[in-house]
C-alpha cells in the first residue's frame, strides 16, 4: 500500500478555495494553499527555536523559529496552528490569529530559498 495522500485546499490570492489537491502537487506546482505557522515566545519575549525531525518531508533536520504546516481540508488557520503545535512539539495551547500573509517562493537547485514574495494583512485587535 502506498503512502497516504495529504490533501489541501488550493486557494487564490484572496484566499478563496479553488479546489482540493494533493499537497505534494501543490508544492511542486507552487500553487497557493493554506499554511498555519506559530511563533512561540516565553514571558521574557524569547523565541523558541526548534530542530525539525529528520523524518519530515519538508526541511528535515533544519532549525526553525516557526512551528506549522499545511491546513487540512476544512480546517481553520487557528485549528491548523494548534494541531501543528501538538504534532511537532507535543504542546496543547490556544493560538491567537495575528495576521494572514500571501507567500510565494521558489528554490535554487541546492535547496536554498531564493525568492520570497509576501503580502500581509494585519488582523484588528480584539475589541478595537
Automatic annotation (TrEMBL):
Domain Nudix hydrolase residues, every copy: 31-128
GO MF term set: hydrolase activity
Pfam families: NUDIX (PF00293)
UniProt entry keywords in alphabetical sequence: Hydrolase
InterPro entries from the UniProt entry: NUDIX_hydrolase-like_dom_sf, NUDIX_hydrolase_CS, NUDIX_hydrolase_dom
SUPFAM superfamilies noted in UniProt: Nudix (SSF55811)
Gene3D superfamilies in the cross-refs: Nucleoside Triphosphate Pyrophosphohydrolase
Keyword Hydrolase on entry: yes
The protein's name: Nudix hydrolase domain-containing protein
Lineage of the organism: Bacteria, Bacillati, Actinomycetota, Actinomycetes, Kitasatosporales
Amino acid at each position: 500500500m502506498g503512502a497516504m495522500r495529504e490533501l489541501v485546499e488550493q486557494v487564490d490570492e484572496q484566499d478563496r478555495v479553488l479546489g482540493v489537491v494533493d499537497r505534494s502537487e501543490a508544492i511542486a506546482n507552487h500553487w497557493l494553499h493554506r499554511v498555519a505557522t506559530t511563533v512561540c515566545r516565553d514571558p521574557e519575549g524569547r523565541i523558541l527555536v526548534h530542530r525539525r525531525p529528520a523524518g519530515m518531508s519538508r526541511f528535515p533536520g533544519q532549525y526553525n523559529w516557526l512551528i506549522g504546516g499545511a491546513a487540512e481540508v476544512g480546517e481553520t488557520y487557528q485549528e491548523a496552528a494548534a494541531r501543528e503545535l501538538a504534532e511537532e512539539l507535543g504542546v496543547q495551547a490556544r493560538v491567537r490569529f495575528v495576521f494572514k500573509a500571501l507567500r510565494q517562493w521558489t528554490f535554487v537547485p541546492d535547496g536554498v530559498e531564493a525568492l520570497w514574495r509576501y503580502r500581509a494583512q494585519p488582523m484588528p485587535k480584539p475589541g478595537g
